[in-house]
Design a protein that fits this description.
22 helices; single chain; Alpha-Beta Plaits; Ubiquitin-like (UB roll); globular; Rossmann fold; 5-stranded mixed β-sheet; NADH-quinone oxidoreductase; NAD; alpha/beta; 4 domains; 2Fe-2S; NADH_UbQ_OxRdtase_Gsu
């Protein structure tokens, strides 16, 4: 630790700290525009100037290290001043300089009320300017459907450039020309190609980059703010849902160092319009081949009549990718009350099971733990589109000190270099048997990491592939005291919670694929829109949007989206998180657990709870780890890996293919969003352009 004096306060800080970090550790406030904790240091804006005792002029605190400061003449610690007259004058000069060309757009700027320049001009600027020349004019740039540009406002902090290059790994933005002619632009002014691009607008300290879909829709002070969790993938990113009245207006990231740091995907942020479009807002019953509006009593009566005349082994239930733990628990309890063993939440066809232990289906290294890995093997996964924030962590690890990374599966752009060693199970078998050179790299690594994705474990041979990967993990010592290097990558928000609950077929029960293929006569479909159900089955669809499941349904029960209910979700690493209600469901739509509770009365098997608190009390009694929010329950990972390794089987020869064909259209909410449809079309055009 190094000693430094900040405004008369002596503090001990690590020598690698910058003066800005040291000042903040001492409680001083340092203004900045270009500096950001997660980006490289640029030193562009000079707003963070401080006075160092003995230095001839103020220095940029973001670019000056504590270890670079000289001690005083008698060996006393170096001293910096953040509130002296010199610093005040310097900051006022920098602010005056920044405002020379900045337009007075504040009344009509979408950044108004949340603008760093606006706030700091009030705190550190002056109320006059000595410059009366004409302001420069810069043409606005086209960056795609998500980011709106007003480049007259740009102050060249280069945060957007550094984010896209360093974090997103897509070098789409850069600067051209010099001095007063400098402009930030995309190459040839084409749309940005990253699935994380909207974070650049969050980083912009002025109104040069704003969110295009939200333009002129609200002012930030009009919104009510609710902490929640994203369900567009299995990462479980921390988000904040901002609403006005009954309507969700925007979704922003929250800082969570263990999961998403402070980034979210464009899909997580911009599906807002999909929350209100194509919604199911009343029950429907199919009569003479057509769906007709009905009351809740009429819909329940039709279901009860059909269930009453059906043999229990010909009834089943499938749960979708967006279901919360509460409604999964309610549906499982109802099915058990009816004597039904045909329940499944694995609509991807995988055979993951809690019977093999919790360590057999979790991302055991944890997301933050990726930064400790020193060799990575990715099997049947495309983390860039299946779990984008996991891919960001792998890239972050690669930027720290590039470890050997290899991929078995589809050859895709992961934003970092890797060795492509094969397409399917045969390559994995060669690595597991030590017949491939990458085996030695894994063996020599202190913390080897094996990531198995849905392209490998989904389908009939998926369990054999998982077993093969577990055998490899066991042979290289990937699971040991202090390190769990066997990780399963999911892309469905509900999957881990469902497996924790045991929402899998009971003894003699049917899988989701078997039920969908016509092995049952009555099928309860809880938001499973990614599976095709054969004709002839009576389908009760409980969901939120007029998607594939609703089109196939005989009875529709309208439910609530994740922003319209309080629900528990478990992310891919096993972290229990809570999504909170930010708005209310439209029309007659209700929370899913409440629908199941009301239906249970009509079916003659009343569920043993009348409120959400009562449901959770029963849930926590049976599964205590769901009560431990924001924590990962300990599990015997080694036992799970050994159980998987012992299964064996024939992994087949089919190449691994990601189940995610279109990043922007993976669930009913996203498919109902016009913004996501536009992004999807643009991404398709970019792929075709690249192929040419």
């Amino acid at each position: 630790m190094a000693k430094i004096i900040v405004d008369g306060v002596e503090v001990d800080v690590p020598p690698e700290y910058t003066l800005l970090q040291a000042a903040e550790a001492a409680g001083a406030e340092i203004p900045r525009f270009c500096f950001h904790e997660r980006l490289s240091i640029a030193g562009n804006c000079r707003m963070c100037l401080v006075e160092v005792k003995g230095a001839p002029k103020p220095v940029a605190s973001c670019a000056w290290g504590v270890r670079d400061c000289r001690p005083g003449p008698n060996g006393e610690p170096p001293e910096i001043l953040t509130k002296s007259k010199t610093v005040k004058k310097a900051r006022e000069g920098v602010m005056e300089f920044l405002l020379i060309n900045h337009p007075l757009d504040c009344p009509i700027c979408d950044q108004g009320g949340q603008c760093d320049l606006q706030d700091q001009a009030m705190a550190y600027g002056v109320d006059t300017s000595r410059y009366h020349e004409n302001k420069r004019a810069v043409p606005d740039k086209y960056l795609g459907p998500l980011i709106k540009t007003s480049m007259n406002r740009c102050i060249h902090c280069t945060r957007c450039v550094r984010f896209t290059t360093e974090v997103a790994g897509v070098e789409d933005l850069g600067a051209i020309w010099r001095g007063e002619d400098m402009e930030i632009t995309s190459y040839l002014e084409k749309a940005l190609g990253s699935e994380l691009q909207s974070n650049a607008a969050d980083l912009c300290p002025v109104g040069a980059l704003t969110h295009k879909p939200e333009a002129f829709h609200y002012r930030p002070w009009e919104l009510s703010k609710t902490d929640s969790v994203d369900v567009m993938d299995a990462v479980g990113s921390s988000i904040r849902v901002d609403s006005r009245g009954r309507e969700v207006m925007r979704i922003l990231p929250r800082v969570n160092e263990a999961v998403n740091e402070e980034w979210i995907t464009d899909k997580a942020r911009h599906i807002v319009d999909g929350l209100r479009l194509q919604r199911l807002d009343r029950p429907f019953v199919r009569i003479d081949g057509r769906l007709r509006a009905a009351t809740w009593q009429q819909a329940f009566a039709v279901i009860a009549e059909r269930v009453k005349g059906t043999e229990r082994k010909r009834i089943g239930a499938i749960a979708g990718d967006l279901a919360s733990v509460e409604e999964l628990f309610a549906l499982k309890t109802l099915m058990h009350g009816l004597g039904v063993a045909n329940i499944d939440a694995r609509q991807d066809g995988s055979l993951l099971s809690p019977a093999h232990g919790r360590g057999s289906y979790l991302f055991n290294s944890t997301i933050a733990g990726i930064e400790d890995a020193d060799a990575v093997l990715i099997v049947g996964a495309n983390p860039r589109i299946e779990a984008s924030l996991v891919n960001v962590r792998i890239r972050k690890r690669w930027r720290m000190a590039p470890p050997p990374i290899a991929l078995i599966g589809e050859r895709v752009d992961l934003t970092y270099p890797y060795d492509y060693i094969g397409a399917g199970p045969e390559t994995l078998a060669d690595v597991a048997a030590g017949r491939h050179s990458f085996f030695e790299k894994l063996k020599a690594a202190k913390n080897p990491l094996i990531i198995v994705g849905p392209g490998a474990f989904a389908g009939e041979s998926g369990l054999a592939v998982l077993s093969l990967a577990a055998q490899l993990a066991d042979s290289i010592g990937a699971v040991r005291e202090g390190w769990n290097g066997f990780s399963v990558l999911h892309n469905a928000a509900s999957r881990v919670g469902a497996l924790d609950l045991g929402f899998v077929p009971g003894e003699g029960g049917l899988t989701a694929r078997q039920m969908a293929d016509g092995a049952v006569d009555v099928l309860f479909n809880l938001g499973a829109d990614e599976i095709d159900i054969a004709p002839g089955t009576f389908v009760v669809y409980q969901g939120t949007h007029g998607d594939r499941g609703a089109h196939r349904a005989d009875v529709i029960l309208p439910g609530a989206t994740y922003t319209e209910k309080s629900g528990t979700y478990v992310n891919l690493e096993g972290r229990v998180q809570m999504a909170n209600r930010a708005a209310f469901a439209p029309g007659d739509a209700r929370e899913d657990w409440a629908i199941l509770r009301a239906l249970s009365d009509v079916l003659g098997h009343r569920l043993p709870f009348d409120s959400l608190n009562a449901l959770r009390t029963k849930l926590y009694a049976e599964h205590p780890h769901f009560a431990e929010l924001d924590s990962i329950a300990t599990s015997d990972v080694a036992a799970g890996v050994k159980a998987l390794a012992a299964i064996g089987g024939n992994p087949g020869r089919e190449p691994f293919v990601s189940p995610v064909k279109d990043f922007y259209l993976t669930n009913p909410i996203a498919r109902s969003s016009g913004i996501m449809a536009e992004c999807s079309a643009l991404a398709r055009d970019l792929r075709l352009e690249a192929a040419e």
